[in-house]
């Protein structure tokens, strides 16, 4: 079980909460993205309400590859 709380505005902290198993699955996705940079790391995780989500981790080399951040187009 892992829950990644989304950012809604600039400079807001990203919070990740999870049990041991869920955090290990997330760590493995991070390691896979680093170890195999031509592909991506993925993790299937359950949130606190038991909903299944896929987390995708991609290794990037430039700031342009990170853009746009989700809250830039938000009206918040």
N to C succession of SSEs: EEHEE
Mean pLDDT: 85
Secondary structure tally, helices: 1
How are the strands ordered across the major sheet?
A: 1-2
Poorly predicted segments = none
Please bin the fraction of helical residues: 10-25%
Number of strands: 4
Structural class comes to alpha+beta
Report on the biggest sheet. Answer: 2 strands, antiparallel
The N- and C-terminal alpha carbons lie at a distance of 29 Å
Query: What is the radius of gyration?
Result: 14 Å
Strand content: 25-35%
Nutshell version of this structure?
The chain is of the alpha+beta class.
Verbal overview:
The chain has 76 residues and is an alpha+beta fold. The chain is built from one helix and four strands.
Considering the chains and any ligands shown, give keywords for the structure:
two-stranded antiparallel ribbon; two-stranded antiparallel sheet; alpha+beta; 76 residues; 21% helix; 4 strands; 1 helix
Question: How are the elements arranged and paired?
Answer:
Layout (H helix, E strand, L loop, with lengths): L1 E4 L9 E4 L1 H16 L5 E6 L5 E6 L19
Antiparallel strand pairs: 1-2, 3-4
